[in-house]
Amino acid sequence: MILGITGTPGTGKKSIAPVVARRMGAQCISLNDLAKSHGLAKGVSGDVDVDKLRPKLRRSLPRDAVVYGHLLPYVLESKAVARVVVLRCEPAVLKERLHARGYEPKKIIEDVEAELIGVVSSDAFDAFGQEKTWEVDTTRTSPAQAAEAVSKIAVEAPGPARRLDWTLDYDSGAKLRLLLSVSV
What we know:
Elements: E1 2-7, H1 13-24, E2 27-30, H2 31-37, E3 41-42, E4 47-48, H3 50-60, E5 65-68, H4 72-75, E6 83-88, H5 91-100, H6 105-117, H7 119-128, E7 133-137, H8 143-156, H9 173-179
Parallel strand pairs: 1-5, 1-6, 2-5, 6-7
Antiparallel strand pairs: 3-4
Helix pairs in contact: 1-8, 5-6
C-alpha cells in the first residue's frame, strides 16, 4: 500500500511520516530527500523540477511506502496511491512554527497564505480525488497524536473527508493584515 502525506511546510510531515511508516512496516520516502539525492533541488530556495522528480519517484517506489512532501500532488500519480492525508495547521500557529524554524519573512508569509487558502489541500483533492484524500488538523496535536490519526486513516479509510476552511477565522481586513504581516 502506498500512503501519501502532504501539506504546507511546517504542518508536521517530517515528524509524522516516519512514525506512520514504522507502524505500517513500510518504507518512508521524503520527496525533498529524493530530489536532493538526484540533484533536482535548485539554488538556495531548493526549488524542485517536478517533471524530473516524477519519473525518479516512479522508479524508486516500493510496494509498501509512506511518501511525503508538499510536492506530493504534483509528482505522485493517483493510480499509484491508496490514500492521501493532507496535514493542516491553523495559519497563525503555522506562522509561529515557521518563524521558530528560522524561515525568511517572505517565505513565512508565502506559506501562511498558502495554508490559509488551502493550496496544497485543494491540489491534493484535485490530484487524488475525494475518495482517496483526507485532512488532519495538526494545530494542537502532538506528532504522536497526529501519527495515530493518520495511521487510522491508512487502515480504516473513514467516511467522507471533512474539509478545513481557515478563511472563516480571518473575516476582517485587520485579522488578515495581522496574519500576513512579517511580525510574529
